[in-house]
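Tutorial handout. Part one gives the primary structure; part two gives the three-dimensional structure as tokens.
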Amino acid sequence: MGNVRYAARPLEAIRNRELEATSREVWSDSLEAVYATDPEVVAAVLPPPLEPGPEPLVRLNISTVTMPGNLVFGAGWFGVAARHGDVVGEYPLLMPMTTEQATVGGRETFGEPKKIAEITATREGTRLHSVIRRMGFMVAEIRGEVIGEREPSSAERIDFYFKLLPSPEGPGLLDGDPFLVHSHKSSRERRAEIVEGEVLLGDSPLDPVADLPVRGLKSITLAQRATIVDARTVGTVPADDLIPFMHQRYDDLSVLGAGDKGD
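Part two.
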């Protein structure tokens, strides 16, 4: 019998490439906007035990990521300020990715709400335009012009994820209580530019980010940034608390007139 590549592998040959990739510096060109929205909307989108953070802030990030070996893909983030007890961080509603590898690894390892999307980022001189599109809809975009630079900085933050498995026994059921993950991120910049511009939110039925309106733009920055991830499972959450929020990560195609079943 020759080499059967689907056969069992020895333990020393087993790798988790998602953990390998996120535990070392990976550089990206990130166009990031932070804006204020309605406090009641932030409270409405947070599954318990998460609660709103100190301010009703939204962070929209549209990035081009370069992996070792010159593998390049698009990545995004749309999340709100939140806290878990005394821990202040962010909770993502959408993490669009352009490749299957980036999507599946993050969802299965960390519980990240990643989805395949189309991401474009263009620069013409000082003019910038980055867009997230999914399933034929414009989800979000940032337009602007570079007006200067600032000193590169370093930052620490914590993101909150839920690892859950829908049950095969029926809709609205989970295979056990979901895990709550704290993802510690350490980032540093090697260049940072100040951008003057605007955030536009599309009225996508599958990714309704437009429900978190822009009430005040805090900042837009274009940065070359590297991030290292150190994530930990901190406990479980009652399944009944998460079931009402499952639609945040699974597309309900019925809103497109495709019947009663989602993906």
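Part three, for discussion. The domain at 18-154+188-228 is CATH 2.40.400.10 (Acetoacetate decarboxylase-like). The CA atoms of residues 189 and 225 lie 4 Å apart.
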